[in-house]
Design a protein that fits this description.
The complex is a heterodimer of chains A (277) and B (347). Chain A has 277 residues and is an alpha/beta fold. Chain A has 5 helices and 15 strands. Chain A is 15% helix and 30% strand. In chain A, helix 2 links the parallel strand 7 and strand 8. The longest helix of chain A has 14 residues. The chains are: A alpha/beta (277), B alpha/beta (347).
Chain lengths: 277, 347
């Protein structure tokens, strides 16, 4: 970031808007100049005249000319993002926060667990892992959504990526809460994909992102099956304005989600009040 | 540092001489309180110097209630603030750490800070709500001022704390150098104020080194009961010298990305509530406890100092009459009692 004013965003042009599901869209942005981020970091996304909200990019960190941001329609800003169309001007500032410490994952088995729109940061870290796949022993990708229609990145997760499994130490465990007649994967909550995992838990890390209640029960289950608190990486979410550690809205106990997070290990924050909000 | 004795009339002449170059603010009485007002040649006789802190903390000057941050503010007029006490200087230290001393600098704060000359005071008449001594702060200054005033005789002992302060005094031939006897008078005033604050607070059970002891009371069950007079109005956060929280508001027309920064309060239900409707602190009891935890625990971890200066503004300004000292006493003593103050003695 080279602006002198920390609140001045980088202008971006909307190249495309992809409809992922009824409530989720992915916006493809072309920033005015190249933009670097690391998997897990986030940006503050401005729709001029409406407001700003934090999102973790879902595209590959090695793609510098384009950025994809996947957004569920929930409030004022996300509503405005869903109304964007090709050619619109928006702003991003960042990247902010601490990324996934990929160098610490080398030589380990990696479990990715994503639910709903929480698959967005998981996709970014998946791209980063696959690029250097030899450094990791094994990658297990677990994901869940309410129904088959609610799945985001359908083309990747339900189809294209599976062909990678032939060559790479990679496997998928995919589920929906309620299936329909065309669904060829599992049924049940995402925690069910964690049953009978073929992993060495003493040399594994888990990356978890999803709605609060999903993260809570996935974390508890991971501990139950043998993961240690320090090996569970959570991507946390809070109300946020400044994104630079000034406005104090995003505190989890004494920790800033914007500065100390958004990626936290469970042991760091497990005793803080209101954790699973 | 150099120190001078300046008589009341001569002091007012000096302040008047600043008016053509600076916006000068000083305390004026309104009801039972002191409020900052802009000094003019017409009202200077009514300004009250060297008594006690005014209602507003220094935050009002360097982190105002509402300001534009994109584009950043320009052409600020040089300002002199006469009247903050040591509690206010302590609050300013927190603000400096937040807005100026971290990895990211606020677009306006440093400019405002450098534009503001501080003429602090030693408290001559602490208020009954003052409890600076309970949080390790004295009612007289030791650092962070450009000039400092102590009321002595029919004038002031004025101590120079910086180059800017020195330049403000101009020709010093018209002042008498402070002598040992003058410093003795100052020390007497300082001691008296210190004793008075201690006396006001004898009955409160607030453990020393609250930065350490607060951790032990954080899990206490008394927190579930003690907040009940809070009407979540945000007075205490607005008026606190070290509460910094704000939100950003988009004020752009077309696509110029203009933004404004506006104070927020952690006691408001919407403060941390996300678009989904989920909040980490949906209950007022949780938000009330969180406010004190922010002051006495979280800011210690963030900045190495507590976020409370003992100025007592949150007590005097509370429409629910919550005396924070009673709240802390109750939790430290593991008992539930009425936490409302009986009366607040002002000037």
């Amino acid at each position: 970031m080279n602006q002198s004013n920390i609140y001045e965003p980088l202008r971006c042009t909307v190249e495309k808007v992809i409809e992922e599901s009824q409530t989720i869209k992915t916006v493809v942005l072309i920033p005015e100049r190249e933009f670097n981020f690391q998997a897990g970091q986030f940006v503050s996304f401005t729709v001029p005249g409406v407001g700003e909200a934090p999102f973790t990019p879902s595209s590959s960190p090695s793609e510098r000319k384009k950025m994809e941001i996947t957004v569920m329609r929930t409030g004022t800003v996300t509503d405005a993002i869903h109304k964007l169309k090709k050619g619109d001007i928006v702003g991003i500032r960042g990247p902010y926060g601490r990324p996934y410490p990929l160098e610490m994952f080398e030589g380990k088995e990696i479990l990715l667990v994503g639910g709903g729109v929480g698959l967005a940061p998981v996709r970014a870290v998946f791209y980063a892992l696959i690029e250097n796949v030899k450094k990791y022993k094994k990658i297990v990708f677990c994901s869940g959504a309410k129904t088959p229609d609610d799945y985001i990145y359908k083309e990747c997760i339900l189809d294209k990526w599976h062909s990678l499994c032939e060559k790479l130490p990679l496997s998928f465990r995919i589920t929906v809460d309620r299936k329909n007649e065309n669904w060829k994967f599992g049924e049940g909550l995402v925690t069910k994909t964690l049953d009978n995992l073929d992993m060495n838990f003493s040399n594994s890390i888990a990356i978890v992102c999803g709605p609060p209640v999903m993260m809570k029960f996935v974390t508890l289950k991971l501990i139950d099956i043998g993961f240690q608190d320090k090996d569970i990486y959570l991507s946390m979410e809070r109300k946020m304005y400044c994104a630079v550690g000034h406005c104090r809205h995003c505190l989890i106990g004494p920790y800033f989600v914007c500065k100390d997070g958004p990626v936290f290990t469970y042991d760091m924050i497990k005793d803080q009040p209101g954790l699973w909000a | 540092m150099a120190a001078y004795i300046i008589e009341n009339n001569r002091w007012k002449e000096l302040v008047t001489s600043w008016l053509s170059i600076y916006d000068v603010f000083a305390p004026f009485s309104s009801g039972n309180n002191l409020f900052y007002q802009k000094v003019t040649e017409l009202n200077i006789e009514d300004a009250i110097f060297g008594v006690v802190r005014p209602v507003q903390p220094l935050k009002f000057f360097v982190h105002p209630f509402q300001e534009r941050v994109v584009p950043e503010v320009q052409d600020l007029k040089k300002t002199i603030v006469i009247g903050p006490a040591n509690c206010d200087l302590a609050g300013l230290k927190i603000l400096d750490r937040v807005f100026m001393e971290g990895d990211y600098k606020d677009p306006n704060y440093e400019k405002r800070r450098k534009n503001t000359i501080i003429v602090s005071i030693d408290c001559a008449r602490p208020l009954s709500v003052c409890f600076c001594e309970k949080v390790g702060i004295k009612p007289f200054v030791d650092e962070g001022y450009d000039l400092n005033l102590t009321s002595v005789g029919n004038g002031f002992l004025i101590e120079v704390g910086s180059q800017a302060g020195k330049e403000l005094l101009g020709d010093k031939n018209s002042f008498r150098q402070a002598q040992e006897l003058d410093f003795e008078k100052r020390n007497e005033l300082r001691n008296n104020s210190s004793l008075l604050v201690k006396k006001y607070n004898e009955k409160f059970n607030i453990q020393e080194k609250i930065a350490d002891s607060f951790k032990t009371i954080f899990p206490a069950k008394e927190w579930d009961e003690i907040w009940k007079n809070c009407v979540q109005c945000g007075s205490c956060t607005n008026i606190c010298p070290s509460c910094v929280c704000f939100f950003l508001e988009d004020i752009s027309r077309n696509d110029n990305f203009s933004k404004a920064k506006i104070w927020d309060s952690c006691l408001f239900p919407g403060y941390a509530r996300m678009a989904s409707g989920v909040s980490p602190r949906p209950l007022l009891s949780e938000r009330y406890k969180n406010r004190l935890a922010c002051k006495y625990m979280y800011m210690v971890e963030n900045f190495g100092m507590i976020g409370c200066t003992g100025c007592g503004r949150c007590i005097a300004g509370c429409p629910g009459k919550i005396d924070k000292r009673k709240v802390l006493s109750c939790v430290f003593s593991s008992k539930i009692e009425d936490v409302r103050y009986e009366s607040v003695k002002y000037l």
